[in-house]
Each structure stands twice: as structure tokens, then as C-alpha cells.
Structures
1.
Amino acid sequence: MSIKISPSILSADFAKMGEDVAKLSKWGADWVHCDVMDGVFCPNITFGIPMIKAIRKYTDLPLDVHLMIVKPERYVDKFLDAGADIITFHPEVSESVETIVDTVHRHGKLVGLVLNPNIEVKSIEKYIDMIDLVMLMGVYPGFSAQKFIESTMDKISQLKALIGERNVMIEFDGGVSVDNIQEMAKRGLDIAVSGSYVFGAQDPAKAIRTLKEF
Ligand code: DX5
Ligand code: ZN
């Protein structure tokens, strides 16, 4: 089974977002990673519900919406109504993980928890039976093209062991490139997010192929 690639539109051209998103399926992408930042949880402000609604018209690929916002429960319904297919959020800034999981499942969509580099895998053990995926961060949220934090690699193996036979996917976000994807795959990765490696490439379709074939 090959890895799915979810290019992050944070590295796309914001002035030509529709065009860039429309190209993703031709390039061989599987999901579209949308980085929503509120300037409070992390030191950057990107975009929100109107952007999800706008790009929904330009692709049939699943929209993988990464909420880097405090109290995401306030907005989850609205992101789902705008067209999100996968919602991931950070439990340490959420008031009720269970409520968010229920809301997403009631809409028939997928939900996952995101772990920052300093948050331990075992901290989400109590939620593992209710979620569809876990996303590990290889950088601290805020910007694309940051340096990959090597110590996060081992968390893939820890998470794989925690998941065991359950049907829970592993996604990785931040610093993914041809230099580390093979090792990630070996440890059990299912979906890789890639911002700068794909959008910064001369030939993004080739970059996606390279990530899938290592
Ligand atoms: C980090 C974002 C990532 C980021 C990935 O704050 O959540 O999705 O855009 O970009 P690269 O692949 O360039 O590290
Ligand atoms: Zn992200």
C-alpha cells in the first residue's frame, strides 16, 4: 500500500489559489491539506471558513482541514458545512475532544487529533478508539519550510504500536521530504503532508511521485 500525499496549500500562491488547487489532482495528490491558523495558538494567521468554501469548488479531492486554533469546537460545524472532509485539531486547546469527534462523525466525515512535537503519543490513548486518524507534527505549527525535528520520527513507531490492529490512520505534517519519507513509511505512515517540497518543486507532479515512490 502506498502513502497518500496531502499537499499543504499554505505553500501555494494565495493570489491564484483556485488555479493551484485545481492542479492538485492532475499532479497525483490524494488530499488537500488546509492549514487554518488563528494567530493565537500559533504565530501566524492564514485563512478560515471562506477559503475552504471557495476552494471546494475547484477540486473533488478530500479537503484535509488542520485547525491550529484555540477552542476549535466553536467552528467545527462551519468548516464541515464549508466542505471539509477531514478535520484535525489539537486536543490541548480544545474544551471537549468528544464533542468535536461526535460533531464530525454526525456529518459522516473523518476526524483526527494532532500532536505537536513536544506532546507525547500516550497522551491520546484514551481517545484512540473514537478517532479515524492521528497526525504527528514534525515542526511547531506556524510556517511551512521549517526544519524537520528528528526526534519526532520515533513517534510514528510509538503511535503504530498504540494503534495496534485498530483502523486508525497515521498522518505526518511538517518537514516531510524525500530525505525522510522512506523511514516514515517503514514505520507505518499512511498520509504525508507536504508544503514546500511539493509547491517549491520545478515539477510538482514529479515531486509527488517521488514522495510516493520514495
Ligand atoms: C505547519 C503546517 C504544515 C506546513 C507544512 O505549521 O501545519 O502543514 O505547511 O509545510 P512543509 O511541508 O513545508 O513543512
Ligand atoms: Zn498542517
2.
Amino acid sequence: MMGLGRFLSLALLPAVARAGVFSLSELQWSLTNQNRSIEVPGAVPSHVHLDLRRAGVITEPLLGINDFTQRWIIDDNWTYTADLSSLMKRIPRTDKALLVFYGIDTIANITLGGRPIAWVNNQFQQYVFDVSHALQSPLRWDKNLTITFQSAWHYGLNVSTRPDAESFPSYGVDFEYPGVRNWIRKVQSDFGWDWGPAFIPSGVHKPAYLITLSNAPSLGANVADPTTINSPLLISETSIDIFKEGYIAATQAQPDQAAPWVVNVSLAVHSVVGSVRPTLTFAIPELKLTSSPIAVQSIPSQNASLSSPVWVTADWTVNDNAVERWFPHNLGTPKLYNLTLTLALGGAQSPITFQAQVGFRTIQLIQTRYPDEEVAARNITPGDQWHFEVNGKAFYALGTNIIPFDPFYPRISDDQVRWVLESAKASGQNMLRIWGGGVYQPSTTSAALTPNYPPHATDVYSFYTICDELGILAWSEFIFSDDFYPLNDWFVDSIDTEVRQNVRRINRHASVAQWAGGNEIEGIVQQTNSSNNGHYTDEFVTLFQEILHDLTYEETNSVPYTDCSTTHGVLSVDPLIIRFGNVSAYGEIYGNGERYDYSPGDAFQYYTFPKSRFMNEFGFHSMPSFYSWEECLESPEDFAFDSTVVASRDHHPPAGSLAFPNPNGMVGQRQMSSAVEMWLPTPGTSDSNQTFAQWSWSTQVFQAMAMYSQLAFYRRGAGLPENNLGALVWQLNDIWQGASWSSIEYSGRWKVLQYTLASIFQPVVINPFWVAGSQDLEITVTSDRWESVSGVAQWTWYDWTGKALNTTKEEFTVPTLNNSVLFHATGYEGFLPTGVNSSHVWLHLNLTAQVEGKAVTNEQFFAPQSLATAPLMDPLIQLTHQGDLTFTLSAKGGVAPWTWIDHPGGTIGLFVDNVSGLPLNGFYLVPGADRTVVFKLNAALSSNKTPAPTDFVVRSLWNNTHI
Ligand code: BMA
């Protein structure tokens, strides 16, 4: 207990007694602007906006038009200062001190004791600085740690207009703050995006520490309790890469699934003691597996060069059958193990033990050409494959795209992110794409699960550990989005470190599906191929085909790399040669696809849907609910579909400048409203708030209908010549309360689409395919199971009074990842009950099937004509409850299409069907067929934890036009 005792005897502040790990959060920070007219308490981790908000200088940035009125914060420079004098006195002169930042956002100058420590410019790097000298010999009377942030916007204006700065062609997408984001390694959507505000925040946005290293032996150290640790070393990074023996990820060739696993560990060590013969020992206690001590590189005593680590690496081989594999939740069990690592330095030093959670799986992205035999045998359209295989098996990727959870990273909470990820799982999603214009998602907040040493938390919320645990694959991207990026030396150096650190950090997460170079740039650069003799294409090739590819595979052997989210694929995987426009033969299919079409008339026209191997993004925007508007609108007149405040929070299409209100806001609003007018009764009642609520909700209903139609089409594609094996909807979450493509609102409230996903992402689904022009109706069952599935389907035509006109029942068997067509007819007379008008009827479809010994169900609703023309009658919905949050909905009048129950403001949760247990809301309620749903409240996210059942309300399309 020598080390700890020494600290305890000196310590007045309890924090200082924490031996080697001192969190900078515990310092008293002050924050000032450049001319010091503002001085308020600051915090770490934090952002300037958040500190100004806490001090009452500004109101909540997401209120009203604050994204416009608070722009002055972006134009100023901001300094965080903390007095270190008490710490300085207490750290023994024999100790070394490292200043460790897990993230600084972004352009900052750091001084300690008046001495310059560093100027930093990359939000996505972690930094380790040896500050021993500055701490022990401060200049003059300066005992402060000072971090001065330069306005990232002004920095960007300066660097992008230097005479030697490269100029780039314009391709038409500029958000609020134009022309600079590609020059700064910072969240790209901080400068504005088409679903969010532009705040360009600054601050130390992740945990930061002063870590002291001592060569006094640490006796009796207990990893679970950092206060007992007096460490001679810091492990600032740990990469745990697990792959099959003999596998080379860059080839993406099939790994030998029976081969042993290699667990490859690399540690970044900063040590004040040397070790000639250090060893690393691996163990998985749950399996009683332990390696012998494995010799690693010798560690020099780093008294002079502590800022840069020494790397030590070791491989441990584990038999294939010794471990259970990790699978996405819908294909198996996401099995995880605790891996314990013990680094022994020898001599008087006690061994250092720490742990990480790992999973065993192979993940591949298959991009080679379909073999001729497969093309012939399965009637596949020739061209290249583009799909994922987990543990050697192709599967259907069902999912959505993730954007940043908040404009202000430090305030994102575990509860908020866990809810979004659990909601993704509850709706059947097995893959999320982390969009490359936002952040590198963090691993975990848990000090115990962060394999750095001494144990300390390195982030403000958990992401990959939750994906690992829930069994959701995470398609990851480097942060490059919709832009050209300069290839000067400092930029390339900066991204070299950034990419290596982030690849190493997430290697250990079984959920990682791939690394993509960035978002949508391949297509943009192709449009400019003719300008400047292909110069921009050449630069793209250098960055995305060479630099990022090579960096990725130097740091991982378990995760595939592709150049871009949306891609035409490759001419060769190894070496990587991007295909671009090199089409072998007309009509062949390559790469993956996306679709955005804002003409409401195209929403259900299959010929406008791409026949793609994989759809990585497609979407339509909708409004947040009335409840979300209540969180951010400030006066009653704002509560209208086309009020200035509501429209100014629609950033699609983007403003393109700092103009306010967004001159294009009404264009985006109009896209939503014209779709509603075409397909649903146009909202209009005598109560303006109800009309606004119905507008908001109706845009969500249309969004759900439009996404359902595409998802059914893409899933059916698994059994058609395109062999489509993936559909990721744009987008899952929201960054604020505004019009966007999300299926979950900023607060965590589910939009209509989120319930629709829960239905269309079921393993076995029944879908109607309707071509209005030729009056062609097909009813198909689609399955994503690895074994064939049998069941019974039933479909019933109803009129709007709720009278069943006729019912058909069919048994079916669907082969693996395929479809069965149960019904096909052309012309109304072929399928409509005799004598009825097509706008007077609708179809209810359902199935039950046996999957792995369990009964699964699916249910869909379809009307052949626009619901705007349906002769609806008052459904007289009765909502009853049993005193708890179990609700029975009963139509006492006519059919209620899109019946929707709302939970009160201040509550977050989801409704599940009390029979199937599946999420259920937004369904056709039929007289005589009551439905019962249970509200599952998320207490952590709800300010009202005991909502009254009487505060739950119900609506349907009838309420678009009736109070
Ligand atoms: C694609 C995405 C995002 C964008 C979305 C909606 O371009 O990659 O950049 O927000 O469409 O426009």
C-alpha cells in the first residue's frame, strides 16, 4: 500500500488521493470568451453552449430559433481555465504526469503552467501529452491548465482561403456554414445538415485525465478499484482483433470456418519502468481457458518520450469448438466472453490485469462476381455480389441509419442511446449503419469494460458494447461525407492517427460489420470526373482506395473495408480497384443502392425502386409529433404546419448559406404536405392545434406507407434475380425536434414508421404487391430464415363499415431467404368481391408460421385506392383501460385505418400487442375485433414515471377531418 499511503498522507482533496488517475472533471473550470465580457463556470467534458446554458447566459439551444440567434457563440473564441496549484504541490517530483484527452472538439491551444503543451486540430483523435516538466516547473506564477478554442468556423475560413489551398468544384450541396467543413476533422453535420441545426460547438467533449506514473512498486493493487493503483504505466489503447488462423481480411476470401481463432492483442504502453522480458497472459475464465505467459516486445523505460507509446503485441490461439459464436440476435445468440489480459513486467512490479468483453465471429462483405453456375441455377441477374456473411453464411440485413444523437456530444446519455438501440432490436433490426458525416461512435462508458489501464472511463456514452450485447451489427464509417477532401501533408498525417486509433479501438467489438471510407463521395466524385482531367477522381482514389484501405488493414484483420457507403463496387478486391463506371455489360448489377424520390406519385410505383443487391439508404421525411413540437415551440402561433418556426426547422433542402429563415424550408414542407394530400384525407378541423397534430402525424403515416412499400419490395428481392440481401432505411434517430427521415424522435418517442418497421422486419412476412396502372395484385410470403418455413396465410377483403366480404386461406412453404407467391391476379374482377368499388374496400392479410419451434405471426393492411378517396365512417373508437397501462381499443362505428394510440408528453415507451408481444400501433381497427396493447414505459427517459391511463389518447385518419 506504499503508493496509495503516500498520496493519502498528502491529500486534502479526496480526488487527489486517487493515486494515479485524476479526472479533469473534478477541477474548477472557468470559461471566458475572447474579450472576457463573459466569464462563467466551465466543465469537462462539456461544450461552450452547455456551459453558457448552465450559467443562464443562453436558453436551451434547441428551443425555437436559437440555432439562428445563438450563432454569435460560433464566432467567438473560448478559453477554459483550471487552477492546478493544489495538484502541483501534491504530485511527487519523482512521478511522471501525462495529460490524456479522449477527445477535444476541435481547434485548441493547450498550456500548462504557462508552458505550451500542444495545438490540436482533430476531434477524432485521443491525445497523450507528457506534462511532467510543466507541472513541476511552471512559468512565473501561472499554475493553470488552459485550453483555448479557436472558432472552428473562422479557422475553416482561414485555411480554406489560403493561397495554397486547393479549390474544389461545387456540386450543389451546402448546408448552413458552407465551404469549410472538409478542412476540419470535426463532426461534419456540426456545420449543418438536412435533418439538423448548425451549432459548430467547441469544448473538451470526452473524458480527460491527469495520470501520474510512478516506479514505486504497486502492492496489493485491485483492478476493480482504481484508487488502489499506483501504476508505472499507462495503457492508452488496446486493440483486440479476433480472426481465423490463416485469414487475410484484405482478400475477403472465405475463411476456413473450422480453423482455430487467433486473438491478436496490441497494447499502447507508456511506461516509466523498463522490462526486458514482459509477458502477456490471456484467459477466458468462463471457459476455464488460460494461455501460458506469452513473451512480448521488451518495454524500455520511457522517461524521455512518454507521450508516444511503445507497442506490445501477442497472439493467442483458441480452438474453433472451444467457444460459442456471436450471432446477430435474429440469427442466433450474441454470445460474449470476458477476456482477461495480464501484463507482467517482472522484477518488483506486480502483474497488471484488466479485461474486455469479446465475441467470436467472422464477418465478410462479398463483392466478387456471381459465378455463372449460380446465375444459371438461381436465375440471378449477372454482375457482382454485394452482401454480408456472418460466420460464413449470407443473411438479410434489416436496419436503419444512425446520425449523431445530439448536437452536443457531452450530454448524450447511456439511457438515451440504449433506448434507441433497444428500439432497433425491438423492431427486428440486425444492422445499423453509422453514417460517415457524424461521429465515430464510442465503445463504452464503463471503466471496467474499457481495456485501458489503470482503469478509467474513456467516453460519455456506450454504443458498441450495447450493439455487441443486443446482437446488432454496426456498419461503421470514417468521417468523410458528401465533399471533396484536401490531400495535403498535415491532413493526411492527421487522418492517419485518427483512422488507426478508431480502427484499433473498435476491433474488439463483435458487432462491427465493416469500415466504409465515407458517405456518398464515390458518386459525387464521378460527376466531376471530366473536370480538371480527372484530378478529383485521382484524389479520391488516393484517399479512399489507397490510404484508408491500407490503414484499415494495417490495423484490423477481422473487418472488411470498402471505399464508400454507396458504391458501384469493385473491379478487384485485392488489390482494391474501385469499379466506378466500368460496367462490364449493360443490365448487370454492381454494388449497392440508395433511393430518394420526393414525387408523391412515385411512392408506390415499383418501377422507380432500384433493383439492387443491397439498399444502404432510402427514406422520406416526416414531422415530429405534436409532443415534440411542445418541447421546442415557444408561442401558440408557432403551432402550425407552415409557421416560420416550424418551417425554419425543416432543413431540407439545405439553406446553402446563413440565410434565415431557410429559404428552402417550405420546399421540404411542401414535399410532405403534397404526399399527405395525395394519399390521405387532408387534415383540416375547426381546432387549429388538432389540425397541426393531425398534419404532423399524417406526414408520419405517409412516411410509414412509403417505407413499407419499398421494404416489402427489397425483401422480396432476396428471391428475385437482383438477390437483394439488405435494406437499411434512412434514418433511425433524430438530433433535434424538426422534420427529418427518422423513425424515432429526438426524445425517444416512436414515430409511426418505427412500428411499421417492427412489422415488416419480422422473419416471415406477408405482403401485397399492387401495380395500380395494370391492376395487378400479387400476395407473397417472404422469409429470411436459413431453413425453409411453413405456415398458413389468410387474407380478407373488408368494406369500410367493417363487413368481411370474403376470406382466403392458403398453406405455404418458403425456401431459405426466398419468397412464395400465394396469389396473383390482374384486373379488379380477378380479385375484388363482386359488385364492389375499389375505393370501398381494403384487404387484411396475416400469417402464422413455425420458426425454430416457435409460432411467428405477421399482419399487413392494404387499400388499392388512395385513402384520400375512402368513404370512411366515424369509427367511434372506445379506449378503455384496466387501471394500469393496458388499453383495449374498440371500434363502435366503422373501420379506423391507422388507429394510433399516443402516450402523454413526458413519457417514453412503446406499445406491444398483448397477444403476440410484438410492438403494435398504427393498425386498422375493425369493429368487432378489439385490440389490446400494453404500454411499456422507459422510466429512465420519462419525466412522468406514473402517467395516468386517462392521459393516453387515440386518433385515426377519421380525425384528420373530424374533431
Ligand atoms: C443521404 C444521406 C444524408 C442525408 C440523407 C437525406 O444523402 O447520406 O447525407 O441526410 O440522404 O437527404
